[in-house]
Amino acid sequence: MTSALIAEGLSKRYGRRFALKDCTLDIPAGHVVGLVGPNGAGKSTLLQLACGLLGPTSGRIEVLGARPASGSAQVGFVAQDTPVYANLSVADHLRMGAHLNPSWDTGLAERRIAQVGLDPAQKAGKLSGGQRAQLALTVAAAKRPNLLLLDEPVAALDPLARRNFLQGLMELAAEQGMSIVMSSHLVADLERVCDHLIVLVASRVRVAGDVDDLLATHHRLVGRRRDTANLGTGQALIEQSHTAVQSTLVVRSTAPIVDASWQVDRLDLEDIVLAYMSGATGGGSDRVLEGQR
């Protein structure tokens, strides 16, 4: 199987409002995939459709070669608020997981609980945010899913709790070989753990690819102001801004940039994500910056 998730023209509508509209993408299997985009892009809706919690209004979605089904043993899901049951203990969560999931791995669950320092007798309602996130991840992972979906799992965590959560995620990916899709606004965290990235803006995929390839092919060009209609061969314009005398471009280039009049800088992943988000919303249009005329 080459795809963990395929969507074609996928839409979800509530009355007159579309939470996701005409989304088409192909998420490769065997990767840790970062899903990033602005609020309202449709990330959470996409993940809920993928795990069968929602049904599409139109279009097609296929997960691990089949139609999504709620409660599937092949798919684990951790929602945005890392849901746990406040009145149940850590051990109660593991017993419930074992009861509900035929593929439950008791050894994995108990190992992770010990590794992250959770007290099995502790009520979930008394845990810190980071501890609740670790418990939710353990319950999802101990199902032994082939695909693990995580919706903003570290958004509310402090830096140390985020680091510990992401470390646990990397260990699971290495040990279990599962496909993982994680949505997040924290691009620096995605860069640490993800090897594939999807930027979703207004339900549309702006860019998707392996992180190493994206970092190698995107550049910032700074030089004298000029018309950008005719860039070099193999260069695609992603974002542009101009002063009276200077142009600053973000381009994706499949060929070497040989024009010596450009200063060429590499971008980090956050720069790339912001360029695509800005370009998709009109922020990347040709403009003269105020105060620099």
From TrEMBL:
SMART domains: AAA. Residues 5-227 form the ABC transporter domain. Keywords: ATP-binding, Nucleotide-binding, Transport. The keyword ATP-binding applies. InterPro entries: AAA+_ATPase, ABC_transporter-like_ATP-bd, ABC_Transporter_VariousFunc, P-loop_NTPase. GO terms for molecular function: ATP binding; ATP hydrolysis activity. It comes from the Bacteria. It holds the Pfam family ABC_tran. This is ABC-2 type transport system ATP-binding protein. It comes from Micromonospora taraxaci.
